[in-house]
Fold this sequence. Notes:
The complex is a heterodimer of chains A (555) and B (369). Chain A is α/β, with parallel strands linked by helices and 555 residues long.
Amino acid sequence: MEPASGLRLDHNHKLSLREFPYIVRWRDDRCKRCGQCTAVCPVKAIEATVKVQRYVSSEGASPAPKAERKVIQIVEQVTDMERYCTGCGACTLVCPNEAIEPEFNPQNKFLHYKNKGGEGYKRGGRRNDPSISTLDRLKFTRISMLTDPALDAGRHEFRIRTLLGRILPPEELPLKIENNKLSINKDSAKFIPPVREIYPIMIGSMSIGALSPPMWEGLAMGVSYLNEVEGMPVVMCSGEGGMPPRLLKSKYLKYFIIQIASGYFGWDEIIHALPHMVEDPAAIEIKYGQGAKPGDGGLLMAQKVLNLIASIRGVPQFIDLASPPTHQTKYSIEEAVAKMIQSMSMAWGFRVPVYPKISGSRTARAVLNNLARNPYAAALSIDGEDGGTGAAYNVSMDKMGHPIASNLRECYLDLVKQGKQNELPLIAAGGVGKKGNLAANAAALIMLGASAVSIGKYIMQAAADCFGDEYNRCNLCNTGKCPRGITTQDPKLYRRLDSDKVAERVVETFKAADVELRKIFAPMGRSTELPIGMSDGLSTDDKAMAKRLGINYAC
Amino acid sequence: MCRLAAITSNNFFSPMENILALETMKEGHDGSGLGLTLKGLGGEFKDLTKYPIMSGICSKKGIKALDDYMKKNGFRLKHIWTPKIKPVKGIVPRDYYFARVYDYPSSCKDKSFSEKEGLLMNTRIALRNIGESDESIFVFSFYPDVITIKEVGDPLELGEFFGLDSDGLKAKVIFAQGRQNTNYQIYLYACHPFFIQGYCSMTNGENTAFVPIREFLMSRGFTGYMGYNSDSEVFTHILHYASRQLNFPLIYYKDVITPLKISEMENRKDSGALRLIKQSLRPLCIDGPNMVIGFTPDGTCFMVQDSKKLRPGVVAGVKGKYALMSEECGVDRAVPKRDKSMDIFPMKYDMVIISPGAEEVKVWNQLQG
Lengths: 555, 369
Ligand code: SF4
Ligand code: SF4
């Protein structure tokens, strides 16, 4: 049967706006039709269009309705899932009249549809889980009172430092006594591993390539300023993909940890720069896993591989750069990790600490125990499920991984059992500062047993105003269309970011965190050494959590 | 805050001297307990210094178990000292206070002293384990030439209770602590001074780094590092660990518990070694407002403190007799006739060391080494 004329079948093939994660609220009465929002939208989720509207008006003393058809210009959200509004808010920022704003739609069915062409949803950012993490449920409840007055965070001298590198057990120190004085016994063949004194919050691995040039530069400048001017030995990890050759040959190299991952990107250039290096790097990090996407390799999408990146990495332009999930040389951890650590150590004459980074996992302890027996392993970095990434499948980010708190704690207690808690420093990462509590999260992890913590997403937000959050806001980092200019190689976009401002914010962030750490440590009576493993200082209001972490329950 | 009174002398003296010094500091302790450790014994123990002395308290049941255990393990009882208890209101006497001198089992006659020390410590721990749950046995020390007395109550009243004013019990080094009960329930094993294999110390101030220090010590694989009913026991064990286990000269105790910053090490000739010690013994940095008074097996006494200690302790006296105390009024009581201008209030970099026999006092400065 023919459909009755004029009765068109409903737009059944189309999605309604209710399925979309963000709904754009546009106000006709405020919009002056400048077109700035549609120009700035990174995904073309909104467009300028025209509509026909019927106006009914009446003039005169008695009603005399008159219908009129008008063509009006509007800004409309498209209902194409490939151009979904990410909620980034760039349109709101540029709008001169506050006429447009995205609104989160908790009923969205985004994940039901974001699989066009049989391809799973890929994105950047971190786990879309806005709930309060374990770290944010820990409080510091051991406050020194009458028996032992608290310290004055403002006046007392504080030393907030930690060690990165394999530390010899006291029983094995090559010392001798002469005239009642100890000295290093030069005749002993004992290898004394390199150890660095660093600030306990470090900037974790984010590659040049994943980050835009001004972002990476800004971080690097901030870190150098903190070291050179503020006297805070903050270190930063390069991420996979090499480092600018000029930096490799500069005296600032000592503030950087160079990462090697399974793609070995950038290592040709690094090895060639070796004879010209005037300083050793702070450390070498061997990446085996990433908390945000355990078991997944690295991925730099073709649209981000432009000239500069291609030359640093030693690859052609505009090709997808995928690092395999595992190192090709990895046959077994006993053999391959040990070999990798040894060859990296050898490249710098055993003067540089070399340590692996793994994703948080039930199997972390197996890796740990293996490293504990390897005298060249300088540390273990564990990246929990709340860590960030530049590109990954949504399913890996949301559903794979292990929270950092209990993973770190069980690893620390394992070391305590073996008496090696001071020999192999643990670096904890993944969701540090997720809700903005950088110092508190860092201090909590330290008291659970971490020697240092590593941050990524937090510094992107604090220093460069990254839009991302746990409601999947923005998270376009993989597409090269970062509206903030942080994770893009497109000069049109990254010129929005001022590297000096980024550097300034890095410095401010670390200085503020330092003050806050004092405000935590002072009432607990600690000022000289980092309270690593001081678990009696912590408590939580959840009994099961307290039991699992071996801390107090307080309510 | 607990009050501490240590005296070292080249003559034997009575522990009442320490107790009277504590009495002058009374407003600082609440009379909740007294601990005494005597070394370099005189009186009836003068000729028994080679033999290990077990100090403790037992119930009637406990002493039988203790006797059985000692017999079974070949220790032969040589001499017994028990205090002549005078009833004092408020102090509940326990069944049996003692210091018993034993001869080593014949099986270990030819063993080295350090092996014998191991046997003595293990025996003490075994007895502690037998009698701790029902509180039938408390053993505070088992070592040659050392006696330990501990009880709950006011120090002066306890002195009277134990009859220490009339007893001939005397020694050349005596440490006394008047307890201020703060963190823990009153428990005899939580009472200072603590003693292990010739090393003894007592401390005041709360130990904020207690948990990581305890974990580090307990993971050293040394059976004696246990107990920890008081957070201050770790200070004694750090002393033992640094001096006996690691063989560091005494001054490095200061470098272990209150390490210098790297930038401060430059003037020290041993800076290379210091750096390594600071790293490897990082968990033993006490990082708290503590003052420690201790002695080592040869009778050297010392005082040391963390920079956070607001009020330093004091060391003063005359050649042949020195007092190391938490308050000056205690020193005035113990050694009234002295040149007060020579009193030493150790500052954050100082370690005051008095050689055996109270011969000589030295202030060792950590910055200079
Ligand atoms: S919020 Fe961002 S993605 Fe959404 S319409 Fe505005 S600019 Fe486009
Ligand atoms: S602002 Fe840039 S870095 Fe932040 S979530 Fe968006 S795309 Fe990623």
